[in-house]
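Step 1: inspect the first sequence and its tokens.
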Amino acid sequence: MLSVKDAETIIFNNVRPLNQEHDLEIVDLLTAFQRILATPIISSLDFPHWDNSAMDGFAVRYEDVQNCSSENPIILEIVEEIPAGYEPKITIKKGQAARIFTGAIIPKDADTIIMQEKTNLQENRVFIFATPEPQEFVRKQGDFYQAGTELLPGGISLNAAEIAILAAAQISKINVFRRPRVAIFSSGDELVTPEQNLKRGQIVDSNQYALAALVRNLGAEVLTLGIVKDNPRALTETINYAINNSDIVISSGGVSVGDYDYIANILTSLGAEIHFRAVQMRPGKPLTFATFSKSLYFGLPGNPVSVLVTFWRFVQPTIKKLSGIKQGWEGKFIKVKSGSELKSNGKMETYIWGKLKLNNGIYEFQQTSGNLNSGNLINLSQTNALAILPVGKTLILPGEETLVLQIG
């Protein structure tokens, strides 16, 4: 049985991210949100595009105003008004100023902006009552970004800020990676859908719905294949279809060592390399990971909590890495104070679900209330973190530090 760290290493080493040669799509700005940028962006525009004012006020020559004060104001002639979007027509000469507004182009030979609160405008003259700093409130062309350099790197998620940058750079078509395709099915004769009448001994298949939601939230395409009975032929047909039509296959159930757990033999018959079938973790011990030539296979346990824990721990970072994200695809692990007494038998790396909260400015993990059982889906509600007790650690007391995996 592999350690969690060894299992993680094997999985991540087998992930081949989407590449620029075969996996590109071109999208427009309105459909680019949360897509993964495939190639670096280089703009032909400087930011700012030209010297402009950061304030409403007056564009002046610093040498004309360097010695003014409230007792000794400088009086300048207003020779032009420059709103945003207007091209200045006049060069500012000695003793002159231009009325200017935020974002407007600074006129030729002006080098400083006086904010209007430090002035008094009288007809075509302005009285200046305070000496500014040289080049005060001037945004110089290229201060934020120089044309021809990298504006955005490849391998990042395009969120609101990045979309705004692309729009400002007048880049309306973007190369992104295609969305990873993830096939999902559940196996078990006992399973029924939420729409079916529930008979004694049956279980509603919640796993498929949870997994589909998690996968979609990561920006991947979901291929839902439903419930497959514990029938070798049906399972073989489903798995064969899944591995040929997706990048990742996720099944739940059927991966333990019971009489009706057929999946491992079927994977082998279809040409898979099975890397492991169990991990030293609780919940989630019966976890299968296998690879085919063009797809990865995760056989998750059947218990609903085990499904979510193993997804958060292994599958989520796999999908992120596969999608082309260069940095930050790994899980977010932080050390925080525990607000609860956390217990384990010490034999397995143990994951305890609960909530990460801000308490007096310090993050604290609070174990969820109720029975912590891999079959108890109910108290997973509002979970946003998993506390991790390593092998050999049996107790963490309130106030002690614990490692936490953020999942929210």
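Step 2: inspect the second sequence and its tokens, then contrast the two.
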Amino acid sequence: MKLSVITPVYNRADCILRCLESVSRQKRCGCDVQHVVVDDGSTDRTTEILRDYAATHPHVKPLFFNKNRGTNAGRNAAIANASGEYCVILDSDDYFTSDAVDVILSVMENNPEYRYYMFTRDDRTEEFDRVYGKGSYVEFEYVDALTGKVKGDYIHVIPRVILQKYPFDEEIRIYESLIIQQIYRDVGKMLFCNKTVVIAERDRPDSVTLHSVRVCKQAIEHKLQAAIYEIKLFGQDYIDFGLRDTLDGFYFEAADNSLLLGKYVECNGFLKNIKRKKKFLLWIISRLHLAPLYRFALRLYLKNKYSYSTIVNP
């Protein structure tokens, strides 16, 4: 079975070679793996490093955007050019363990009744060892994603044809969980193997996580879009599974972000759909048109929480 590794990259000259080498090591172990790397319009030496490396490593398929289009656009382009039956997404600032692909393919070959496989990143190893046991296998179902049992970062191994069926949203750029949750619903059940296959690097000043902090209008708009999509795509599922409180949380999130943008009418519309969750404070802020004050207070709080040195400004 052939595996295609999907890596979008933007201005990662300091670490892209480490990522590339980690995949090449899998080839030296005899694994059949392709590495599709999309340079998302980098302005540092990333493009040069990628071209030089691909020239001497035929398993690397490089693609180049002439301008920055975002992580999800890079993922979609890579998937469209992948040739493996399954794809695994490897961020450019992360890297495989020495036996990652061997572990992945072994689990898949020994459990062929599944179409979707999940593995561990090192920053969740301790948590999963405590909850599930080291090296354990767990079957997850779609409802587990709705209840939050399946939450946060995993290493996902997904059939290429399913990823093509559910392309990543290039407008929102982040919040890939919206796509992953649709795939969960499609496949029905997933096999999680608690074996660490990726070493993750976080806390970078240019981390995508920091771009989602609501100190600028774009981040707030993305949060609003994500909440609206969650309601639209999965709202009825939450009701059918008796998870009204969870659905109310997304309506609350949509109302909160609408309010931060000064969209009082939209905010009130979302508040009316909340059945159980407390909404009095948001209603008062909206009623008195205090969005600028609320946005200022939240900005100060978040900048203090994440520190001025790392936060992404408007």
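Step 3: confirm your contrast with the notes below.
Confidence is low (pLDDT under 50) at residues 308-314. Residues 188 and 253 are 27 Å apart (CA to CA).
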